[in-house]
Write a structure and sequence with these properties.
This protein is of the alpha/beta class. 36% of the residues lie in helices and 17% in strands. An eight-stranded parallel β-barrel has the order 3-4-5-8-9-10-11-12, surrounded by six helices. It has a two-stranded antiparallel sheet with strand order 1-2. The chain has a two-stranded antiparallel ribbon with strand order 6-7. Helix 7 runs antiparallel to helix 10. It is globular and about 55 Å long.
């Protein structure tokens, strides 16, 4: 497994990371035994970056990772944790809290649930509109000084917020959606991150499964699968997006690889400062994504991909309107 550094001041991690969200939340039921096996298989394959959130499954995801870590060498992996999202007992979303006191409260519970004495990268899941980013980052900086956290990360913020945060404390990476179907960061956010020496951990590289190459138009989603309200999975939008995937399949088949592998490899080849996160919930999907690390797209192939899925080609926004309203990254 190749490695990449998170930004100019961050840790060196595997060139691809594993996102654990789907093992606990938002994509319907998951098999816990298979989830644990998938985490172990990922680490065995050389993946060292494991991404979670304290609100994924209302703590379940961190507890799942704790169980996985019992059979792993903690120092082999870097744990990235998002915090700040508030959930109700029915799974509802109640807003965000990134006050300094809340930051220290959240990390206390995460450390206990994870069964570890430190978190490698700690980041607010969203910008709290009621709390200056300087205060939130300053609180994480205090946790770093105390030894509970190693690095500051951010998630879904715009270029201006990146600059304000970096003026307070070094930021190692910005976690943000980036894929062939979501290229909004290319105009302002990615250039600002590179200017500041901030890496990118890209989630949604398969666009919630659309770019996986296995999606069926008649697929029935589970009750709590958020794709049921995602604009890209609705009606004509879904038809148009799946047509894009079929066009991409022609490029993949010509190279002898899968659609998913091309999609992951494309993100990885946008810069050495980008680490794709794959959200595999099963070992078979993990194995397919890992195959992308062996894929090198030529200039001709990159041009062919650009022709079949140019920037802005996706039908529908990447989140529903109510969720987009919480994204500072969409305001830049």
């Amino acid at each position: 497994m190749e490695t990449r550094q998170l930004g100019s001041t961050g840790p060196t991690v595997s060139a691809i990371g594993l996102g654990l969200m789907g093992m606990s939340d938002l994509y319907g039921p998951a098999d816990e035994k298979e989830s644990l096996a998938t985490i172990h298989a990922a680490v065995d394959a050389g993946i060292t970056l494991l991404d979670t959130g304290d609100f994924y499954g209302m703590g379940h995801n961190e507890l799942l990772l704790r169980d996985a870590l019992r059979e792993l060498d903690r120092e082999r992996v870097a744990i990235s944790v998002k915090f700040g999202a508030l959930r109700g007992p029915d799974g509802s979303w109640l807003g965000y809290d990134a006050r300094p006191a809340a930051v220290k409260n959240f990390v206390t519970y995460s450390l206990r649930r994870l069964g570890t004495d430190h978190i490698d990268v700690y980041r607010p899941a969203r910008l709290d509109p009621d709390v200056p980013i300087e205060e939130t980052v300053g609180a994480i900086g205090e946790l770093i000084e105390a030894g509970y956290v190693r690095h500051v990360g951010l998630s879904e913020v715009g270029a201006q917020t990146l600059r304000r945060a970096a003026a307070v404390h070094p930021v190692v990476d910005l976690q943000i959606e980036y894929s062939l179907l979501s290229r909004g960061i290319e105009d302002e956010i990615l250039p600002a991150a590179r200017e500041l020496g901030i890496g990118i951990t890209a989630y949604g590289v398969l666009s919630r499964g659309l770019l996986g190459g296995h999606w069926r138009p008649d697929r029935q989603l589970a009750e709590r699968d958020f794709r049921g309200v995602s604009p890209r999975f609705q009606g004509e939008n879904l038809e148009r997006n799946l047509a894009l995937v079929e066009s991409l399949r022609t490029v993949a088949e010509a190279k002898g690889v899968t659609v998913a592998q091309v999609a992951v490899a494309w993100v990885a080849q946008q810069g050495e400062d980008i680490v794709p996160l794959v959200g595999a919930r099963r070992r078979e999907r993990l194995a397919e994504s890992l195959g992308a690390t062996e894929v090198r797209l030529t200039d001709e192939e990159l041009a062919a991909i650009e022709r079949v899925i140019p920037a802005g080609a996706a039908a529908g926004d990447r989140y529903a309107a109510a969720q987009l309203a919480h994204l500072d990254s969409e305001r830049s």
